[in-house]
Transcriptional coactivator p15 (PC4) C-terminal domain-containing protein (Latilactobacillus curvatus JCM 1096 = DSM 20019), 148 residues
Amino acid sequence: MGKIEYEIMAEIGVLSENPAGWRKELNLISWNQRAPKFDLRDWAPDHAKMGKGVTLSNDEIASLRLILNEMETK
Amino acid sequence: MGKIEYEIMAEIGVLSENPAGWRKELNLISWNQRAPKFDLRDWAPDHAKMGKGVTLSNDEIASLRLILNEMETK
């Protein structure tokens, strides 16, 4: 497989940080110079390494927000 | 590696569905009979296969909700 190019276009928020400094972050990332997508993923300090994660479209982010707010009211 | 056992304890919400029927879902899943964690992941129809995803603690879910609601007001 070829190299995956990515650029972190915006750092939106940090969900957590573990004792080793890895953080679970929500970012806007452009993969292979395509339009940026939301990305929820673990990162080593200074984004030196990426862990596993999922990408999310605008619609998926909006659905997730509704689901989380609905949960809170139950 | 051994087999990973899991049980979907609660189906919380569906973020999207693609033309092949795979859905991006937020569930509460118990892995290897441990306490359930939130899990954001792609699933084939009827949960026949799982795709990539991330697990989230209660605190990470609460942080994510705050981050998404803060985004909305910008």
Q: What stands out?
A: Helices of chain B lie at 58-72. The mean pLDDT of chain B is 94. The interface with chain A takes residues 12-16, 24, 26, 40-42, 52-54, 56-57, 59-61, 63-72 of chain B (CB under 8 Å).
